[in-house]
Amino acid sequence: MKKQILMFFLLIGVASSTFLIARAFRPAQIPNGTKNACANCHINPAGGGPRTAFGTEIELNYLSTPGATGQVQWSEALAALDSDGDGFSNGEELQDPQGTWRIGQPAPGDLALVTNPGDASDFPTTTAVKPLPGIADEFLLEANYPNPFNPTTTIPFQLQEAGHVRLEVFSSIGARVRVLADADMEAGRYSSVWNGRDDAGRSLESGTYLYRLSVGGFSAVKRMALLK
Ligand SMILES: [Ca+2]
Ligand SMILES: [Ca+2]
Asked: Quick one: fold of 129-226?
């Protein structure tokens, strides 16, 4: 009897170590996946146990074959999803927005900007403003799109001259909830993505929000609607 019990635990041990080893290859199968390693797909950062939304997504739809030996199929489709619902696609979080990286290629993007696609409290903050092609011939705060939105919207603006730019989001009663830009910027066209979260990363309620662009003597305010 003792022997049987011992054998039982021995088998469990072998099975669980196989479980861990079997999946240890997967972080290397997503772009920059080794940065957050097991935590991309598992709630326990050491791996094993329940999966994050990103891990579940992969398990269900993006393995070469179902089960422990399946390889992750990183793709345009998987990159375009926002598995953890933080307003940034899996590709944006892993620094491969188009999902074109393939195993064996050099890691794409900037490792320092990689965030966890399986953790809604971890998302990009340093890339809130992106330059766009084209020349700006005026100071202009454009309409956000989409509007209404849930939870992400894009706010385009133009700077006729270089200056210190502040782009801020306020609640309908005038409380500032998010600073999207507070930096010296060159003349040009830009866009900023807002993910419906405040500066502390908390997801905000449905409602009307105001966004304000201030640079030099120019200031403009527009309205947008977060609709969940
Ligand atoms: Ca995300
Ligand atoms: Ca995330």
From this structure: Immunoglobulin-like (2.60.40)
